[in-house]
Amino acid sequence: MADDSAPAPASLPEGLRVYAVGDIHGCLDRLRALEALMAEDAARAPEPRRLIVHLGDYVDRGPDSSGVIERLSGPPPFPAETVHLLGNHEAMMRAALAAPEDLERVGDWIRNGGSAALASWGIDIGTEPETWEAAIPPAHRRFIERLTLMHRLGGYLFVHAGVRPRVPLERQDPEDLIWIREPFLSSKADHGAVVVHGHTPVEAPVIRRNRIGLDTGAVYGRRLTCAVLWADRLRFLQA
User: Fold this and answer.
1) How many Å apart are CA 143 and CA 71, to the nearest integer?
2) What is the pLDDT of residues 137-155, one digit of tens each?
3) pTM
4) Pairing of strands 150-153, 156-159
5) Which domains does the chain have, with CATH numbers?
6) What is the bridge-based pairing of β-strands 194-197 and 156-159?
């Protein structure tokens, strides 16, 4: 493994290696390819503890939301702890399935790629929304329901979209954590941790003093990105 690491904007506890994966959006082929690269990196890394953090937006728009959820709800590709964060697309899916009579919620999800997700579970959007939840395997529904909003380690905060600048981390609005773009993206404020996030598609990973952006638009034909973080170092894997 070539040493292509660079100084990172924060640090992690000794002996820990973190793999943070950007927005997958139903791109199972890219996820599998990226997992192979992650496993190769982990096999050669000296850190005894490994953690995989998925930053949310596993469903919608891409061809195989069902396959992605099946993969993520199973064992990791190598011995590692896992954290799965809530993205705005999972939040829309949960809201639509919880209130199928609410045509506004259902419509929001469908317009934002929910039709592709439903198709991956073999569900025709012409059927009654009240029948959709029952057609999704219970293990997949449990996975979606158990997603968390944030995870903090060392000098990093892992979250789907970002944070509201100048608001303490413990007082952040959940809606901001999964939806925010501005003023977060252009902020130069110290957030109390370097925020590792997805949500806003970019052509290449973004590294700033206060944030690392990892949504590189896999569902738009670009690469799926993983940031590898250890000690005070950083490198990227892409598939």
Assistant:
1) 11
2) 999 999 999 999 999 999 9
3) 0.97
4) antiparallel
5) 6-85+147-238 (3.60.21.10)
6) parallel
